[in-house]
Amino acid sequence: MSIDRAHTMLSMIFRYPSLMSIGNGNINYIQLPIKDDDDVKLMFHVVAQIPPSNTIEMYLQTRPRDHSSGLSPSLDQEIMGHDVEIPGKGNLAVHTDETEEDLAHNDVMGANLAVVTESVMIATNNYVDIPFTNENVEFYDEDEINEMNYDDEPPTNKASLDDGEHIMPSPMFKQLNLDVINSMPAEPPTSRTGLWNESNELFKGLRFESKEDLQYAVKRYAICRNQHLVVCESEPQLWAVRCKKWQEGCNWRLRACRRKSHGMFEITKYAGPHTCVYPKLSQDHSQLDSTLIAREIQNVVQRDHTTSIATLHQIVRDKFGYDVHYKRIWEAKRKAMLRVFGDWDESYQALPKWLNILQLTNPGTKIVWKTIPLGGISGNVRFMRVFWAFGASVEGFKHCRPIIQIDGTFLYGKYMGKLLIATSIDANGHVFPLAFAIVEEESQDSWSWFLIALRRHVTQREGICLISDRHAGINAAVRNPSVGWSPPHAQHRYCLRHVVSNFNEKFKNKVLKELAYRAGCQHQPRKYERYMEELKRLDEKSLAWFSKLDTQKWTQAYDLGYRYGWMTTNIAECINGVLKGARMLPITALVQLTFYRCVSYFETRRAEIRARMAAGDVYTTYAIEKFRRAEAKASGHTVTIFHRIQQTFEVITALHGFHMDKGRNKQVVKLNEGTCSCNKWQSFGIPCSHVLAVSAHMRIDSWQFVDKYYRMDAYASSYAPEFNPIPHESYWPYPDFPILHPDLTSMRDKGRPRSSRIRNEMDLKEPSVRVRCGLCKIVGHNRRNCPTKDGGQSSNPLSHDN
């Protein structure tokens, strides 16, 4: 019964794990060798995750039992340290004089061992290999496990006994599921660094997935204890460090290498803990380098790659208690960006594959490439330009107002370039992302290439208003009829904000700047002329500057309604809302970001649309607010019918509530022509107060005069097209496209790049409290520097009626 009793005790030890002092270790494999016929030894080989040891051996020495007593100690007593009594030497076979109770007890325990074995395998997530042999115990290094082969079936003990009987297999052997055991992986169980933290001591045998994981753990260990280390040896398969104070007597050292048996880095030599002390805490730590910091802030950068260096610096200080230099945090963020978004050069090679799957999964998406052969190498090209427009944006633009705004912005990162953007305006006044392109620079050639792609692949609508700045490349491209954006196909207009900025760069006068901006915003030609006269009076040269510009392109009074009241480009809003931080990413990550930001942007707008339509709105909030403001003014207007059939009316406005010198203006409304002499109806496509006064007087529905582009159904149709998810990379087909390489001539110089954008007064935020002159009543200066104080008081051009 010695073998059965031994296995019985083994099963009980597994049943009561508190009897085994293995700490937090995982049982990786078990050996059950039999030393000889007399004694039985159980040896448990445990790979522990924390000290004091990574190997624990448990032995059980047995001796013969005295049958004369007829009593046997309880199993619990045997396990807790009592001697186990077995028959004398040579009597290992089952005896007939054993009590039935013992037999029944042993049969039950043997039958339950299969369940225990299975539970251990589940708990360890590794295999448990129990070799069946009666040979002497052999001790071997755990790295030799892979070289040991066990038979599929347990061998039979052929040792002859005195009475000629043979050892019968224990019931336990019949219960083991050998198929399950043999189906487990061939590799030995491996430990994981995730079960170790820097508050614990390192120990020999601790394993790590990679050299980087090993270095990370050792650095965290040193930082936690305020100890400094120096590297003694570093190779791809080897890493050794020691205490910085080793010459002062501290013997702390560590050596680790990659084991061929399991392919992991393992600490092979370790002497610790430290015996040295650093009496003063410094503001920095040598092990807190940019590589470790990059790993710590990686999740933060992945969630928001626009996180500032100051914010990351505070995160590191809160976590480690050290004040790290700004440059190291900046370098750590750069490394974290590489870990999250990939290498710059590899990103170019990945771009064709990603854009190919984008086109396959999102029908209607347009991609246009421009490359040049790479030095005669077959199948390799150099990147020059790429244009992309998502199918959902192309389809949704059909329901937006016929307005397209274009602009360019600098790219940051390893390679220089420009990001060209085309946007529109949806029914509620929000930016509608339309198309993007990456080019080498802004020029006539690059803008012509972009506008041609926009006309061919995005929209063929006639009469579109193209709003841009006064870039020479854009002006030249638009004037070229072959590009497709000259009249009558499109109308080119300037962004008033850029025009005024250019004007201010020349004259550097805030008063003139504000007068020029107000002149461009006026709806009625008479008011525009009034502001221009005031500009001429203050500085005659300023009027000469504007005479070089086409009045239709920068003023609302002479726009003829193409702008829909939109005087500026909203590229800044697009960059902040849709492309925030995209310009600093590798090229594939940048394109991916535009995709996923547009997906999120469309879904946000859909939720807004559903809420407004559920509330019963027929028109957008933007249109309703303008309509209500005009409606409030209309109540004081006086309407005179001049021709009922032709629907011609005269409207006299009411006196202004606060300025008695304002009001009593005459406006002419022609409903059949859809015009009002105030020009606001033509500009916005929303009835002005004069039209609303006529509608109330004639008892007709004034909502019928609101442009169709402001209806909720048009708003919903703009965002109805859907984006489709991109499948896992394993399912991406390889595109029929040569290997793409970056343009090395566009590589940015080493070092932190200076800001590419030269900030001007357009970037300066106006103060919350605006100074108004007491003489001329103009905002922007005071009495002391008023330009009119020597010539006496002048009429205030900014206080005229609107």
From TrEMBL:
InterPro entries: MULE_transposase_dom (IPR018289), Transposase_MuDR (IPR004332), Znf_PMZ (IPR006564), Znf_SWIM (IPR007527)
Pfam families: DBD_Tnp_Mut, MULE, SWIM
Keywords: Metal-binding, Zinc, Zinc-finger
Single GO MF annotation: zinc ion binding
PROSITE patterns: ZF_SWIM
Keyword Ligase: no
Positions of the SWIM-type domain: 667-699
Protein name (Swiss-Prot/TrEMBL): SWIM-type domain-containing protein
